[in-house]
């Protein structure tokens, strides 16, 4: 913990009056069973899902190597052994502190890696805690099928990742304070809305592919444990709708976003989209991203953000066209407009709406009827694949086949929300336009 | 041809004085051998690579079905049989006219589908002609290894595709005029620059994957014929550079663009980029697109274009911040700025430079040294993969493995240019800022 304290400066946390937070979110509140009311919530058993650090991962991958040999092997690949070790210790420090702090409060804990993140362990626990980054949190959330199991994330390496889904960074150091607030009811539940996906078509029961297997970024994030659960779907008769086509509600909810499109980046995607009440319009694009409010700070944000470079060029053109004059320096003005634009991309994680983006949309001819804007908000989205080799990808991790003729329905339902925590005195989000 | 004439209105072609065109491009001119000088160029043998229409493709795919059965089968998949037939006839009309017009001029022709687009046929021909869309043109160009074999593209269905790479749309009707101009020397060569790719690393001799196999969009575009050529590279010793790592210049040049990144769309890509003299900066993004001038109207354009929607929102913010007033209606003003911005994205196909785009770039910390702008121009680009399962994709068609540790060098060389035609009185591009 010394390493962390010496490195880490607390980010300024915007504090609103508790009443104001509640007001903002009153319309999105979801009822809680009595034992989950803040103040009455007293978990006896906590499952701690901890990240497999990059260092641990490499050790397991090369069990036959000594430390010195491992250092050399990593160096040949352009990786820094000392750096890996350093971050490993930071992570372990946070994990140990979280574990011992819960134990000191008289709570039973089990600390597990992803390989043991199984249904029996999840059922045993009153709450799931993660020590890792957003990847670990996403993995944990993926096996929580409804809003009745709370999940709390500790960012175990704030020097490395922002940890949007975890508690604010200060609690990576102030673990005691976080757990005190939790056990004393000094928090409210934040119901992060998730997207439910229904597939309709012929080829919808194939087991999905898991994308994160050994990826450097989220290498702690594997769905392999889910495969038995998903494979069993092949057995028995698939349910049919009136049209005779099979329907399947996927057993995984999207916490960040659903991507739909050709799974190979360089291929053009053809999709027919229907938003709320606008009926099927054929799109030629690089795919569709349907994001929750949670996901609006993630991939969707990076796809849609305005860059300083673009704003500079736009400003130059506007000045040439109109002789427009500004008081600030160009640089300051550009920064201001860019920031304002980008802030508006972030939406409330509790609002029951999706933000969608049609990537690199080729503008459809106005003669062909109503167009769909490249970016917007929708309560429900229906997509029909006209693709060759496409996928429906959930949270960048689980990839389902989605080829020509298959349909997907994306919706948000209250019962699918993820029950997470906002501790008293903190805010996760401030003001939203929508 | 009647169908086409009745449907099609000629696009206004901007005409510059021939001298002015030459001046713009004098600095990019490439010397021609005597027999290729306009006026002296008299092809005796022309190979016509024709598109396999969607209708023909479906017929071959379902040889056992009658016409009525095929119509029903397509309808179940949401496709329109009559529409397919209609476009098939338009295409065949142009193909037949091109063939007969060359024949009437005393020129030997061979009309082939992609399956017969082989080296012997290419060597036989004095010039390659395509009747199809941009996909057919790209396929034809992919087997022309240097600047000595001319290629001319006829857009065989201008109702359907813009055909950026083909002759202007009017020549789909005025075939005779086009061929007259060609044979009378009333044209100049346009040398479309292409990107040469060198791979350096361990795993660089794997045969590539061909992406277009049965894709609905460019289904006429297959590299399968190339596989023997590419597989042979495995035999014999790979050449080594001084560092001992294998080097390989790929046998395919990029006419549009090179995409480098995780081949699965939903994955984050880690790349180390060096542009001209800026040394390796690690990028976290959705991939890199390095585009030629030719490619700057294609995928790159759609990735970078400013949408009316974004410009509207920017205008709203600017007005709120500054009280900015404009004379035009908002809509007109937005359109004007957007168009001006987007026009600047298009670069000269003959300029020996690449336009690069770093997709969804996560901004690197300024503390880590010089940043690379998300979009810019470079004469040469060096990329090192820090990816898990990435590809280097040429013209959206051929995909080479590009995993952690592998390097790629992208360059433009005069000898790699593609020799295409600009007929007298037409322009392919007008004014360029760069």
UniProtKB/TrEMBL annotation, chains A, B:
InterPro entries in UniProt: ATP-NAD_kinase_N (IPR017438), ATP-NAD_kinase_PpnK-typ_C (IPR017437), NAD/diacylglycerol_kinase_sf (IPR016064), NADK (IPR002504)
Keywords associated with the record: Kinase, NAD, NADP, Transferase
One Gene Ontology MF term: NAD+ kinase activity
EC annotation from Swiss-Prot or TrEMBL: 2.7.1.23
Natural source organism: Chionoecetes opilio
UniProt similarity note: Belongs to the NAD kinase family.
Keyword NADP: yes
Domain of life, per lineage: Eukaryota
Protein name: NAD(+) kinase
Gene Ontology CC annotations of this record: mitochondrion
EC primary class: transferase
Residues spanning the membrane: none
Organismal lineage: Eukaryota, Metazoa, Ecdysozoa, Arthropoda, Crustacea
Any GO BP annotation: NADP+ biosynthetic process
